[in-house]
Amino acid sequence: MLTAHYNQGNNMQSSKEFVQDLRSTFDTLYTVADKTTREYFATKPSNEELLGYFKIRLFNERWNMVELAQAVANQPIDTPIEETQLLAKQAYDEANHFRMVKEVIEHISGVEANLAELGATHGKKMPSQGVFILDKYNAQNDELVLALYQFLAEGRAAVVWQAMAESIEDQYVSSRYAKISRDERFHSEIGRLKLEKLCTTPEAQQRALDMAQNFVWDLYENTCLSIAQVSEEGQVAMKQAYGQPTRELSVAI
User: Fold this and answer.
1) Which fold has domain 2-242?
2) Average pLDDT of the residues of the chain
3) Which of 39, 89, 117, 211 has the most CB atoms less than 10 A away?
């Protein structure tokens, strides 16, 4: 369990130590996501399967763009301008990712993507999209939750997209997802910097831990729904690292 990892002794960790330790506890989740991604692309999915996969990814990028832009708009007037610039840069990156995934779909299908038609069938937020977590926890209006999402969910995304870039045979797709992976690592760093500013009290650190425990299983479920069912070996590793899920999942564990 994540909480037990920190409650050793009575001295509160510095915010940097806390955030560093928090990141290390996600190693198992990231490893499982990496392995599941590589195993899926090793099966050489058909173009039809790939199109279904990337259509979901397309609207995850769009919703990330929309929600992060809203988070920028919701910032208090006294927010440090550097923080506003970083969050706005992330929203801009997500707009670029939306374009790049659209181009991937067009590359695979051989025809121009009709975004209106795709939006009608794939445009709703769903658990197979990481952005689903933003709404679930009202991250647009909660700077701690948003920073956790950036730090942990975007960190996982960087791992998954790099695994895809290294395992998919199509070099056009590989090169674009290698770029997206680099952007996600930067977005995770934005979250890390913000968490270090926020997690300076025992109460803030405990709240971050509680939320992270939920995020573990949200992101595990996302891996199963968006890529492939995690292997039995991966399921065992998850339970050994994190205990039982904090809620009933819609996938095997």
Assistant:
1) Heme Oxygenase; Chain A (1.20.910)
2) 90
3) 211
